[in-house]
Amino acid sequence: VGLGKVSAPHLEAYRALPEVELAGGADPSPAARAHAEEQHGLRTFASVDELLANESVDLLCVLTPTATHRDAVEAAARHDVPVLCEKPLAATLADGEAIVECCARAGIPLAYGSSYRFLPPVAAAHDLVQGGAVGEVALVVETLVGGRGREAQEQIGPAHYPFGTPGGTPMGIVDHGIHFIDVAPWLAGRQVVAASGRGNTSGGELGAEYVALELDGGAHAHLICFDGSWSTALPNEGQWLAGDGWDTSGTLLRAGSWGRDIVELHVYGSDGALRVAPYAHRLYRSGPDGIAEVPVDGPPAPHHFGLQLRAVLGALAAGEPLPVPGEVGLDALRTLHSIYSDEREAVAIGGRDVV
Ligand SMILES: NC(=O)c1ccc[n+]([C@@H]2O[C@H](COP(=O)([O-])OP(=O)(O)OC[C@H]3O[C@@H](n4cnc5c(N)ncnc54)[C@H](O)[C@@H]3O)[C@@H](O)[C@H]2O)c1
What we know:
binds nicotinamide-adenine-dinucleotide, 8-stranded mixed sheet
């Protein structure tokens, strides 16, 4: 349900899975339905209730604007259909909590769309860290800084993030950072114990944003986002998007090309470090012996959406725990919203109260 921008890579990836049959799609927009019918041969309906009443469905993938995830999940619960819900779980904490409660009450499995975890270089980095390849993780860092000036910045808009609530641009701490908030502690094998930062609100001024997470065991995770300036990447030094990748404007690059800004995760540990290029499909390990590329198994983006779907369907079929349950998405939302909370404690630094 929801046949907008992100449905294209989802459908592209799902169609490459021989065990998956696309039962149908729902969207109130006739143009979106016509596009999905033409491009993907999808049978479509104007509402999710119509879709679920007419088709036999094993899993509903919720790809609607973030503020409408709750309505779509509640429809799935009415029809007793398991859900895979895109990130962020919801636009507000109240909706996120209602989504988890509604699925628990109805007894339907709720999977969270933590697609970043299924990008092969990120999954491989996780395996390396868990296997002790970098020792104790001290710091996880991601920076998404660059853009094409303030004029080119575009807010996602109130359909996703109602005006005045946490929001901003597609590469900001809300829409993209929610991946980091979930993935950084998972990569480090740690829990978030405190979060601080500065984020934009939907419809407001767009400034530089950051998230600073304190993890248990004394580790830290830092994210910096700003797309209101220009990238300092040199030609061909930015993000390499492998074939069939999606650039930051949502364009499918069949043959691959150089993206504009560098989107990379770095994991620094006591015995080594990792440089992870999630969409460039590259992973490097550095340590006392220098830096070397680590081969990555699995297909590049957008097929991480297929790997995610396969993992969810496999868990449902086997009656096993979901790879990433809805509660994980709710935890990430709680952490994100705590950054916006004005209930933080003031501490005295250098004689001044600092929050
Ligand atoms: N995992 C990722 O990497 C990733 C990337 C992009 C977007 N997303 C998430 O996917 C979701 C959709 O994003 P998008 O960029 O495709 O948005 P979009 O605005 O391009 O598309 C949303 C579509 O949903 C339709 N819609 C609106 N209300 C609906 C309803 N009640 N029932 C059915 N359809 C409805 C709209 O008509 C539109 O076609 C968001 O939650 C976003 O955060 C995830």
